[in-house]
Design goal:
Elements: H1 3-31, H2 35-58, H3 65-93, H4 97-122, E1 131-133, E2 140-142, E3 160-162
Antiparallel strand pairs: 1-2, 1-3
């Protein structure tokens, strides 16, 4: 790949991380009653998203929907098969059991995400049900979810919809 491509992908990663970081900072500012700081963090987060998406498009990483679904399946599968198991082991070796437990939940959820992508790959144009997300672990349910989250045990009443 070219140096320009590498630079775009590095910038994409940095801008993407800045977006998430600033949203976390905004949530903390809200908790502390710092409303102006929270608004500024959210505004900057949105600006970083604009940058990240432009970098990703300029790197020509947005392909056809079929190709994007396959990339998503590969990414989610890599996370649950290769990435998180090693991280879980590292956390256990460092006696960070709460983090190991959390990473294990995330690992399981990534596998669910891969399966949901495989499902949508079969017919990406169908008018589908809504997706519901667990606010604790990120588990996604296709269609209304009742009961407890199968990964973390959170109440299905707390799930929110993504359309």
């Amino acid at each position: 790949m070219s140096k320009t491509y590498d630079n775009l992908m590095e910038a994409f990663a940095g801008e993407s991380q800045a977006n998430r970081k600033y949203l976390a900072f905004a949530a903390q500012a809200e908790k502390e009653g710092c409303k102006q700081a929270a608004k500024m963090f959210r505004a900057a987060a949105e600006a970083e998203t604009i940058h990240a998406l432009a970098h990703f498009r300029n790197a020509k990483e947005v392909k056809s929907t079929a190709e994007n679904i396959q990339a998503a399946i590969a990414g989610e599968t890599h996370e649950c098969v290769n990435m998180y198991p090693g991280m879980i082991l590292d956390a256990k070796n460092e006696e960070e059991m709460a983090i190991a437990k959390y990473l294990d939940m995330v690992c399981k959820v990534e596998g669910v995400h891969a399966e949901l992508y495989k499902d949508v790959a079969n017919d990406p144009t169908t008018d589908a049900e809504d997706y519901y997300i667990c606010p604790v672990c990120g588990f996604i349910s296709k269609g209304k979810f009742d009961g407890k989250c199968p990964v973390c045990g959170a109440s299905g009443e707390k799930f929110y919809t993504v359309k």
